[in-house]
Amino acid sequence: MDPNTLLLIMAVFVFVSAVALSIQAGFLFGIYKASRGVQLSTERLVPKVESLIETSRLTVDQSRKQIVEITAKTTDILDITRRQLERVDEVMGDATVRARIQLEHAEMVIDDTMNRAHETVAIVHGGIMKPLREIQGVAAGLHAALQYLSRGRRPDPNHVTSDEEMFI
């Protein structure tokens, strides 16, 4: 190729490179301006963020203290509850034992009462009912004798036969 053409091509490429570098320089200047604006905004926010961090730190410290207090109180409450449950368990155990003893006493009293009632019924049956039946038998015999004597005449054979048939 011809040296002039080559020089012309090189000049064009150098010009294109110069334009590209100029555009890059413009972009870099824009980036610098934007980063400077972000830096200024950030510098204005830094005190606010620092105060927020300090407030958060104080809140966390207070929360830790309160959590320690709550944990201690909860532990105390659980200990008291455990002791109360142990007392309730003892009372329930004692009440169960006493109730069992009372039930055994009641059962013994009921058994004794039933035995006495049976003995009383046996005594009444043997001492009162038996003599009453004997008296009733004697009275029935006297009644039959009085009827027989009050008739005064001979008994009717039909009537005697019916009386005998009753006993057969």
Highlighted features:
168 residues; mainly alpha; rod-shaped
Quick summary:
95% of the residues lie in helices and 0% in strands.
Written account of the structure:
By secondary structure, this protein is an all-alpha fold. It has one domain (32-152). 95% of the residues lie in helices and 0% in strands. It has two helices and no strands. The protein has helices spanning 3-151, 157-167. The longest helix is centred in the middle third of the chain and has 149 residues, at 3-151. It is rod-shaped.
What is the domain total for the residues? 1
How many helices?
2
Helix content: over 70%
Give the biggest beta sheet.
Answer: none
Number of strands: 0
Structural class: mainly alpha
Rg from Cα: 64 Å
Set out the fold topology.
Elements: H1 3-151, H2 157-167
